[in-house]
Amino acid sequence: MKVLVANRGEIAVRIMRACRELGFQSVAVYSDCDRLAPHVRYADQAYEIGANEPAESYLNIDRLIDVAREADVTAVHPGYGFLSENAKFAAACRDANLTFIGPSADVIALMGGKVAARQAAQRAGVPVVPGTNTPLDPNLSDIEVKQIAREVGYPLFVKAVAGGGGRGMRVVREPEGLTSALREARSEAQTAFGDEFVYLERQIIEPRHIEVQLLGDSHGAIVPFVERDCSIQRRYQKVVEESPAMFVTQELREQMATAAVALARSVGYVNAGTVEFLLDKAGKFYFLEMNTRLQVEHPVTEMITGVDLVHWQLHIAQGKQLTINPGETLTPRGHAIECRVYAEDPDNGFMPSPGTIRTLRTPSGPGIRDDSGVASGFEVPTWYDPLISKVITWGPDRVMAIARMRRAMDEYKVHGIKTTIPFFSWLLQSSAFHSGAFNTNFIDIMMAERNGKPLMEPTSEVEEVAVVGAALHAYLGKDAAATKQRDKTSAWRRQAKVEALRVIS
Questions:
Q1: Number of folded domains in the chain?
Q2: Residues recognised as catalytic
Q3: Whole-model pTM?
Q4: Domain annotation covers residue 432
Q5: Which of 96, 120, 99 is nearest to 109 (CA)?
Q6: CATH code, domain carrying 33
Q7: How do strand 2-5 and strand 25-31 relate by DSSP bridges?
């Protein structure tokens, strides 16, 4: 099999590694700014697909199909993000006689619509969060909408039907804020997804975000895996995931797994997917959504089950039957934690921090896995998601998994850009994190309590320069005049020495 990887960054590298292990060829695609990216260099072949803007490159369906034909591939793996949950892309692959490594276009379309997914869950007997089962009619009066909202119950969410990643979503705590929230959510949804339709859903207070990984084959088998806790989020996006979830009993685990399988079976699900639930304080779970793709956090599941999910994605795409024992996949082996390392400034609201990575030292050693898509000298662009790496640690218990993650964050060095590493170093020392006393509001609450106190002292860069300067002085000697005379025609040599010392320091 020859596979076109229709993605970039760490997930592209992850898929290509799986292809190489199974003896398959991989084909990379890249935009202008990604021509020297690690995933391009790792692939067996690589094709430029357009300018930096996603719409002109990684979201350009016609260009991707053209490359697939030119490279003579047999299958396309979308990774996550970009076109991974785009029914039109899956259909285009099918129409081009290419195997789309994921569920069918029809299933993607069904589960991609939030209201339609809620309806599918209800038909399968899966509990859902109270809310509207159809999109709100834009022609309804304010009085009519407020009546519907009253029946749903406050506080509530206004959510985009085609939404994701927190876009097109607003929290409404009282009726007075409903009209403006609807207007803002509709506008944002139209801009982000080309679809202004929204629905209402009651807000579960201080929930935990729990998800169940699935694999389904074309022969009707569906295998669930141990749940993941993805409650630590910023801007409704996950930053830390772990498995198994604390406080989830084996009984609750099996109940959620049974519900997830029921939903997947009812829609004829094939390949990798994830059913996401909200878990309230009383231990009741509610269907949130289904992600019809490989999850960012899939390594957590791999670490505690020993199952290579990407291998199985490729096997299933070839028509092979699942040979995994569900009893084993619902029995965790130790504990695993994942921290998503973003090029973001946690002291500035986790805003993106693009730029050039001058030096990079990644963590390693027992129980540590680093899935990275960058290297020293790599330019983190402004065009795409700022995720640069995922660090996953495993231990025989949660205490050791945390200890190894702390060591990993101590070892992880990135110079040239700001990252979320200082945030993780602080988080991993938090007593609230150690106790498991967190929910989806955890980061907002904890950062507010810091009251603007920086996670990293602002003098760090100055100190780095000072170290380099001192080392340079020692290296060149006291006789600066002589040194200057000796190198007066070789400015590039002096600069090279500075850069070398910067790396050493």
A1: 5
A2: 293
A3: 0.87
A4: no
A5: 120
A6: 3.40.50.20
A7: parallel
